[in-house]
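Deviations from the work plan: none for this task. Representative record:
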Amino acid sequence: MTLPRLLAQSADGTGNLSSEAQIFAVIVAVLVLLFVVELVRRRRLVERYALLWMLAACVMVLLAVWNNALNWIADLVGIASPPNALFLLGLVAIFGLLLNFSVAISRLSEETKILAQTVSRLDAETRELRGEGPATNGGPREPELADQQPGDPPVSA
Amino acid sequence: MATPSASPKTSQQLRKLAIVPAYNEEAMVGRVVREIERHAPDFDVVVVDDGSLDATAAVADREGATVLRQPFNLGIGGAMQAGYKYALHRDYDVAIQVDGDGQHKPEYIPMMLEALHTSGEADMVYGSRFLGDPGYAVPWGRRLGNRIFGVVLSRIVRQSVTDPTSGFRMVNRNGIELFARDYPHDYPEVEAILMLHAHRLQVHEVQVRMNARGFGESSIDYPRSAYYMVKVMLAIGIGLLRRRPTPMDGPPPGTGEFAAVAPGAGSAGLKTPPEEGGSA
């Protein structure tokens, strides 16, 4: 997103942004911010993740507006070329986001597993109550055609 | 001991459950259920249909088993945990895993139940192929994996574990409560032994023979067995660092040596076991 900024920097080598590039970078960052807000408004994105992305967009705006921020960061970490500091920042941010997602996915699959286990138990109990299930290894049972996939071979007991 | 000594139950009074995890086993699962009913008629049978695409659930149902139909495939760990949760919910005292592929012979169930009681302190009794002649040619990869895990596990739990990947295992109420609450995901057998150890639950081995798998090749092929080795080793390593909540109040029965450690401390329901000796 801050590609124009990068290009401008490599062009004059000082890390200072041309005003056109600066304006462009601000516009892009603000658009990202608006897009995230719109996603939340339509309930396509929960606030938890919206915060992350809005933070990312804010950092983009900050870097675009504050000319010397990148130079300062590069100096601080000891990176000779400010664009490399930008790459590093971006990588770290993306790595953090991905790790965050892996944690979220792990939690979701754990929750899904618990739901599946509960559903199967409730299903067994429902069948039992309806008299379809094997209450005590006796009583007539209806064949479970619903559980057969169409095209499966016929059941052989 | 499955029950507090205040109200000892005989084997006949115990509520006993056989959990049969099955994934696309329509050819074998019926026979497994019948064999259990023949050799261990006092066991109720619950088949966990782990999202099978074939008629596994229908076959099991026709044989008179209760069927837990998982809405999609959870893997053996999730399926077994569904079984343990069912056991806990229905207040069973003993639960045994009998694989739906016919590998485990139900004729050993009475012997294992006997061992669970007579060994006194055991919370889990499992059938080991390698205490004697396995009864079939175990592929060398499996044998090697078993040996490696066996050596590592035996050192950690300070007790000989000859067949750590055996799924043919019977637990008492303590084991049911623990596994219903927390059971490993992918390849649970090895890690489960570690969990039992972390919770001061006792494991006892008995010798069994097994059938080669019901049909086809072992479900674990070579790339997957490499993943298996790494994953389980990681699980063992991390398992040593983890504090897991204990389902029991106070020390589990049969571990008198810890009675002095935790009097009154366990009434909160959740307690973490003492740190494992050394972080290794």
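The longest helix of chain B spans residues 222-241.
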